[in-house]
Protein: GPR180/TMEM145 transmembrane domain-containing protein
Amino acid sequence: ALAPTPARAKVETGTLKLDSVTTEHTIAKFGTGNDGPGELVLKLTTAKRGWERGTHQLRLMLFKNRKYAKWKAAIAKGSLCDVRNRLADVTKVVDLPHPLATHSGHGFEYFEDPETGRSYRVNKDNPEDVEWRDPNNHTEGPLDRVIHRETEIRVELRHFKRQSRKARRRGDPREDKATHWFAVISDCAMENYDAHPPPMHYELNMFAADGNHLPADILGMGKLYWLIFLALAGAAPGGLWLASNQYRRLGRVHILTVMVFAAYGLQTTSVALELMHLGVYSKDGKGLQWRHTFFAADFAAETMQGASELITSLTLLFLACGWTTVTVGSVTSRLVGSLESGVGGANAATAAAAAAGGG
Structure:
């Protein structure tokens, strides 16, 4: 259950709202390695009304690291939407179904004539190609019924290393280069008028090379966590044996030993929970996070690691201050003794004050 298997994809879901003020929205960041092209699959869903054609320029833009930094700088300078969006490395038109369409599929949209009630279809690539055709009587295959406006876009993610002139002349194959991609949804047409279209829900699946492993920016973390977990689990029996020998020899356990074991246990559990998170993430691209599940192993792992580091820091601080001979029993007895002496001292002071007043 803890074994990190190869990832199917990284998944990002959410809702975005574009208008005349906010014409662009960054929805995801994804890293690809140098072992081949990745792939991005974006599914957008919105209401049937509000995105009429001719009044919008909905686009999916993909930026690499440098271009994204320049794009953000252009926004800060107040540049026009059309101007700064030319920096995108990849731009794809988002073609939403027509708001009056009843069915869609195989390159056609089906409509119903309000006068006759008959159905006809329009070729998306050639709007002049119109013919009477019932969506339940055609030969292309099953169609999608349009109950809301939905579309899907697939884009290959590939970044190449620079080639020398000699390599280009020789016709050498180009080598892939690792990079980060930033996905942005944009509609620059809304900058020209007061527009308030309905929100859009997006589901973004980002695949690494061949769609069979984790994104490049976290690739290898599973092996690293397994190595740390096995090292921690392997060293634990030795520490327990030493602590038990100390208890048999002295009849007590040093409190610093207890603190070290507490920090050690928290850190080991943190690594185990992180492995669980990576294992689930590798299967569904979401992992064990608060926004996806009640059992937030990722959050619990971070919390336990922080507690472990706090205990370790306090232990080192106590040692630096000379705290080296205190046991668990002595700490308890001193605490109880201090409480008792405090109460006794307060009673004595009260009695002395009363005697002085009577005299």
Remarks:
- Residues 221-323 form one domain.
- The chain has seven helices and 13 strands.
